[in-house]
Amino acid sequence: MGQSACREVKCGLCDVPDVEIRQICPPVRLSRGEWIAHMGPMPKTNMGRSGALVLFSGGQDSTVCLAWALDRYDRVETVGFDYGQRHAVELAARQAVRERMVAEFPAWKQRLGEDHVLEMRGFGAVAQSALTADRAIEMTEKGLPSTFVPGRNLAFLVYAAALADRRGLTVLVGGMCETDFSGYPDCRRDTLEAQLGALNLGMAQDFSLETPLMWLTKAETWALAKGLGGEPLVALTVEESHTCYQGVRETLHPWGYGCGACPACDLRAKGYDTWVASGRPELAG
Fold it and tell me: pTM of the entire structure?
């Protein structure tokens, strides 16, 4: 599959020094009907499309992506996946985030539509990892963390696209990122482009896949949260979203709840500390 044109540009929207954001062009029609995913921040000119479905786990990244979508689309629905993850706190965080967004951001209340939770425990049983079984979090012989669930994002996109087809939604929004990430191959732009092309061919659809965090660091993700909803959205993300692989909700750190030791907490904490050290800038959505 060919690649969409892209360019490197200066952000110009925040005070973080030397921020480079890679802008990927909007979906481009290729031969045989494939569509290339839009993999970076998108201008608000796409408001008015039929609506968006956000892949929403209740974590930091998907919380910011939900706010990003609500800032752009008149109709936004969310979908979560019960794939047998060890800690149900992740699913509980989803509802807490949605309820607080509705309460604190009146402009988004009318846009936030239904929430869907899809049962995928059979998949989780096949693709076991440290997220679905009692295993140590460590590097495997393949050079991937034991938290990697093989094909998880690919399976999520199949289920999400099927739901979007039935709900009349043409835009999928995900928090995948290959800047500050754990090395999961199904978070990479090339993987997602290939999957989107297959979905559009197999469903006779014209879905687009928006990944606004693809080229952002974790520090820039905090800045984007502030740009979308100010300090109230930052506070919501800290207090309600859940990222910790160990499911810890007893300890509230400046960056949020978590054990403070697992790879997910480490990425989140380092990003927050870098953002704070830069003066808590905001990045326009």
Answer: 0.76
